[in-house]
Amino acid sequence: PAFGLFIFTIARDPLRIIILIAGAFFWLVSLLLSSLIWFIAVKASDPQDERLQKGLLIFGVMFSVLLQEAFRFLYYKLLRKAIEGLVALSEDGCSPISIQQMAYVAGVGFGLMSGAFSMVNLLADALGPGTVGIHGDSQLYFLTSAFMTMVLIFLHTFWGILFFHGCEHRRWWEIAAVVIMHLTVSGSSFCNPLYVGSLVPSYLLMAAAAAWAYLLSGGSAQNLRRFLLCKC
């Protein structure tokens, strides 16, 4: 999905490509910082204490989500400054790209890097040793992981639109909603290997975030209703 979003909506515009790469870089930095903190916490704790290690894993996931959203806010502030510079340099006093377009491209950048790391971890597991499901575990690991990667890419795209809109109009409850949805989706992964417990809530939240982002981007509620009812 990220490849399709990039080809059809971003690839032809050099400015959008720059914004996407910068967004992916911001997500990567947030992941590196959260991974470093989690690694230090694990090394400083007792590795034999399973309850503590599980607690540290939950802490690491939640902290990573909060750090990602903090970097999304920093990226918004950076792009806001960039728009002011573009307006000052343009002859007609208009920016060549709107904040809504920046929000979309930045969201795709976050989702692209998130999906890339998810696939790298998946491919690393595929190398072995052993075979998935050989001890009675679910054999749907790779399939559900692919679906989870896809939903995260789309969610980051929609979250980018919602988050930037909340920052632009000072609607802090929209920002809080994005953080809560991100925490919910990440937290649902602890339901695995009961994959229904993570996939179903994630896809429901994706549908809600997609509809919300569509309306905030100027879409018509009537058109959305006709689409949901499959009416031409």
Structural topology:
Elements: H1 2-9, H2 14-43, H3 50-89, H4 99-126, H5 141-168, H6 172-188, H7 196-216, H8 221-228
Word description of this protein:
The chain has helices at residues 2-9, 14-43, 50-89, 99-126, 141-168, 172-188, 196-216, 221-228. The chain is mainly α. The chain has one domain. Helix 1 (2-9) runs antiparallel to helix 4, helix 2 (14-43) runs antiparallel to helix 3 (50-89) and helix 5 runs parallel beside helix 7. The protein is globular, with a radius of gyration of 19 Å. The two termini are 25 Å apart. The mean pLDDT is 84.
List keywords for this structure.
232 residues, mainly alpha, 78% helix
Name the helix and strand elements from N-terminus to C-terminus, one letter apiece: HHHHHHHH
Mean pLDDT score, rounded? 84
State the secondary-structure class: mainly alpha
Radius of gyration: 19 Å
Helix share bin: over 70%
Number of separate structural domains = 1
Number of strands: 0
Function: Potential subunit of the gamma-secretase complex, an endoprotease complex that catalyzes the intramembrane cleavage of integral proteins such as Notch receptors.
Transmembrane segments: 17-41, 56-75, 102-120, 140-163, 175-196, 202-221
GO biological process, one term: Notch signaling pathway
InterPro entries: Aph-1
